[in-house]
Amino acid sequence: MKYALPTCAVLALLGSAPVMAEEAAAPASPHTFTANVGVFSQYIFRGISQTNEDPALQGGFDYAHASGVYLGTWASNISWLQDGDYYKKGGSAEIDFYGGYKNTLGDTGVGYDVGLLYYWYPGNNNPASLANADTLEAYGALSWKWFTAKYSYSLLDRTFGTRNSDGTWYVDLGAAVPLGDTGLTAGAHWGRQHYEGSGNGIYSYSDWRVSLAYDMGKLGSKFAGSELGVMYTDNTTNTVSGYTPNVYGSREQFTGYIKRTF
C-alpha cells in the first residue's frame, strides 16, 4: 500500500522551500580577518639580516574589507640595533602598522595597491651613533599574473636611523611562478635601496633573492594554510658603506622557514 502526504503538508513543505533557499543564500560577510605566524632561520629585510643570522619568530594580524580597504600589524624580533650599539635600551623588536587600498584596473587583470607603512622600533636610541630608527613609508604597487612591481618612499627624515634621509626610496621587482600542480612556487626578486641626503649615498645598495616555497596543504587538509620554504639572498653592501658583518651577518645567506596563515 502506498501512502501520500496530506495536501496541507505538501503545501506547507513547498511554502517553506523559498525560506530555506533564502537562508542558504545569505550573503557572505564583507569583513575578513586573518592571522599568520612563522619561524625563520633568520629575518632578512631588503637583502640584509636583521637578526645577524639568528632565528626569528614572526606573526601578524590582518583585516580586509570587500571594498579593497585593509589594515594590519606585524612583528618580529631583531638584533641589529643592539648588535651595533645603536640603541641604549630596547631595540630588540620591530612592530609594523600598515593600511591601504587594493583593487584591479577594470578587466585588465592588473592589480594595484597603495598605502602607508610605519616601522616602529621600541626603545631609546644612542644619539651618538644613530637617530631614532622609526620609519614611515608610502607605497604603491602594480601586479599582473605572477609579477609585482612596488615603490616605497620614506616620509620621515630618519629612515631606519639615517638622519636627513626623507625622500629615500626602495624599488622592489618580484615574480612568484607556480610550478604546475606540485604545490611548489618559484620566486625571484631584485630591489634597490637608495638613500637621499647629504653623505647618505654610501648606504645605498641593491639586493636580490631566489626562493622556493611549498604549499603544505597538498599533504592534507590539516596542513591547509601552511607553507615551507627556502631562499637565498645577496646584496651589494660592503664594510666601507657601514653594513658590517658583526651587525648584519654575511652578504650571501640561506634562509629556511615555516609559516601558517589562519
Walkthrough of the structure:
- There is one protein chain.
- The protein has 262 residues and is mainly β.
- The chain has one domain (30-261): Porin (Beta Barrel), CATH 2.40.160.40.
- The protein has 3 helices and 18 strands.
- The protein has a 12-stranded antiparallel barrel with strand order 1-4-5-7-8-10-11-14-15-16-17-18. The chain has a two-stranded antiparallel sheet with strand order 2-3.
- The chain starts with 6 loop residues before the first helix and ends with a strand.
- Helices cover 10% and strands 52% of the residues.
- A hairpin with a 5-residue loop joins strand 7 and strand 8.
Shape: globular
Number of strands: 18
Structural class based on helices, strands and sheet pairing:
mainly beta
Helix percent reads under 10%
Write down the overall mean pLDDT: 90
Helix and strand layout, with pairings?
Elements: H1 7-24, E1 31-40, E2 44-45, E3 48-49, E4 56-65, E5 69-77, H2 80-83, E6 87-90, E7 93-104, E8 110-120, E9 123-125, E10 135-144, E11 147-154, E12 158-159, E13 162-163, E14 169-178, E15 184-194, E16 205-215, E17 226-235, H3 245-248, E18 253-261
Quick rundown:
This protein is mainly β.
Which key features would you list for this structure?
262 residues; mainly beta; Porin; two-stranded antiparallel ribbon; disordered N terminus
